[in-house]
């Protein structure tokens, strides 16, 4: 008698697109495990990511460095959930493996550092070998979680997370269509919700966005996402029908999304309005890093052991990269800000 997992795997074979990644055909894990009776390998990966400490910390990591005193600004966690929703919609429309998509989407930003890309810039500058959040996501999932054991995820999930970042053709792509979907969904999500948050924060208004871009994609957040999602589904289905195994947008829509993304980099991400706050965040992070470089014995024992095995820079980077914005500020205050009462 088939287990529930085996029934799910048979349903995948019967229902999914022929180019989908079937759970039963996974390339497997680094450490071989007994298969679950209920869940497929990708369902197991999804659950491991959701229950990880690194995933929980995303709720206190900034999406874009805008002061988020209001309840309705995105965090790195809500961004992750929006990416997962968009990616699963695209995947269902094409007929791909939603469990694999969800696992990749939920884990894609797990290696992000405090203060969003500002923090990543600091770590990249101070590390001899550089620093990229997508590569750090793999390190967190394979070397840091579970007290250094890692989550032992499937190769398909790790590959999709590694290649989720970047917009140009030279950035590389996942070997699964599911991973490629997450890469596009990440861009669709953050470009559009960052417009929404920037308008809410009064650092952007709709009149400033180039009219040709809005005319093409839509005048509301929902309409733009709808346009991009449907274009991705129909374009990819057409690709597959002619033997091209690749997730893409249509040429015009992809160019428009790229232009909108470039506009957001100029106006918001690298714009003058947030420059002061970006520099504050970088200053805080630099001081915290400098302190632990000089005082590694003040880090938790887990990271001190990494210093012993892999060197000071690796251990300090792992500790700092795992911090939430709130915790990093708390550490800075503990180290550098005088107490009101001194005994």
UniProtKB/TrEMBL annotation:
- Membrane-spanning parts: none
- Cross-referenced InterPro entries, in alphabetical order? dGTPase (IPR006261), Diverse_Catalytic_Enzymes (IPR051094), HD/PDEase_dom (IPR003607), HD_domain (IPR006674), PHydrolase_assoc_dom (IPR026875)
- Domain called HD: residue spans: 76-191
Tell me which Pfam families the record gives: HD, HD_assoc
* Stored CDD domains: HDc (cd00077)
Keyword annotations from UniProtKB, A to Z:
Hydrolase
Q: Does the keyword Membrane apply?
A: no
User: Is Hydrolase found in the keyword set?
Assistant: yes
Entry's Gene Ontology molecular function annotations: triphosphoric monoester hydrolase activity
Name of the featured protein: dGTPase
Instruction: Identify the species of origin.
Output: Clostridium grantii DSM 8605
């Amino acid at each position: 008698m088939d287990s529930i997992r085996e029934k799910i795997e048979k349903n995948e074979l019967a229902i999914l697109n022929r180019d989908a990644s079937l759970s039963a055909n996974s390339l497997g894990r680094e450490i071989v495990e007994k298969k679950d009776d209920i869940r497929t390998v990708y369902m197991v990966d999804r659950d491991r990511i959701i229950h990880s400490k690194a995933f929980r910390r995303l709720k206190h990591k900034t999406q874009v460095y805008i002061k988020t005193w209001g309840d309705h600004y995105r965090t790195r966690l809500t961004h992750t959930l929006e990416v997962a929703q968009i990616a699963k919609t695209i995947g269902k429309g094409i007929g791909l493996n939603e469990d694999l998509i969800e696992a990749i989407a939920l884990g894609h930003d797990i290696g992000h550092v405090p203060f969003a890309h500002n923090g990543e810039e600091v770590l990249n500058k101070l590390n001899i070998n550089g620093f990229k959040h997508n590569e750090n996501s793999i390190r967190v999932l394979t070397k840091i979680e579970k007290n250094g054991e890692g989550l032992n995820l499937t190769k398909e999930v790790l590959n999709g997370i590694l290649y989720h970042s970047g917009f140009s053709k030279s950035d590389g792509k996942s070997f699964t269509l599911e991973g490629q979907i997450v890469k596009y969904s990440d861009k669709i999500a953050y470009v559009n919700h960052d417009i929404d948050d920037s308008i809410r924060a009064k650092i952007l208004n709709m009149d400033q966005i180039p009219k040709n871009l809005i005319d093409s994609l839509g005048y509301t957040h929902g309409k733009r996402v709808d346009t991009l999602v449907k274009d991705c589904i129909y374009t990819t289905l057409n690709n597959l029908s002619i033997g091209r195994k690749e997730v893409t947008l249509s040429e015009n829509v992809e160019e428009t999304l790229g232009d909108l993304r470039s506009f957001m980099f100029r106006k918001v991400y690298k714009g003058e309005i947030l420059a002061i706050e970006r520099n504050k965040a970088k200053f805080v992070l630099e001081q915290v890093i400098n302190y632990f470089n000089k005082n590694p014995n003040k880090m938790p024992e887990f990271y001190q052991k990494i210093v012993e095995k892999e060197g000071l820079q690796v251990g300090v980077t792992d500790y700092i990269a795992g911090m939430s914005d709130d915790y990093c500020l708390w550490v800075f205050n503990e180290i550098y800000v005088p107490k009101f009462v001194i005994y």
